[in-house]
Design a protein that fits this description.
Strand content: 5-15%
Structural class: mainly alpha
Order of helices and strands: HHEHHHEEH
Number of strands: 3
Length: 120
């Protein structure tokens, strides 16, 4: 119904729920794969639109990952929207942070750098 996570989270449509579930599953799969490839992780960062603003998505991604040392503080996760904050519990072996990112600015700077690089 949409590619916008905010719209999906606000929808009662079954397809929206499936899209959210798939999104979170894929993110969890990548975290697990990188943790295995790296032999463990020290820190996980959530940034960008969804990572900064959706405590529900962060929770769903990290649920069931205590096996690799990840434990988030549920209330801190809920209270953290659009600001930099550690959301992992004190007992978590992996630090989990929400870090605000100005994606548009980063993309614009990279575009300018590429144009200057390719200019004669």
């Amino acid at each position: 119904i949409s590619s916008d996570m905010k719209t999906l989270l606000g929808s009662d449509e079954p397809d929206a729920g499936i899209a959210i579930e798939l999104y979170c599953y894929r993110a969890k799969k990548y975290i697990g794969a990188y943790a295995a490839a790296l032999g463990g992780v020290d820190t996980i960062l959530f940034g960008g639109g969804v990572g900064e603003n959706s405590y529900a998505v962060r929770k769903r991604i990290l649920e069931g990952m205590r096996w690799c040392g990840i434990d988030i503080c549920e209330q801190v996760n809920i209270d953290t929207v659009g600001k930099e904050r550690r959301i992992s519990s004190d007992s978590s072996k992996v630090d989990v942070w929400v870090i605000p990112v100005d994606e548009a600015s980063v993309l614009a700077k990279e575009a300018v750098r590429l144009v200057l690089l390719l200019s004669p």
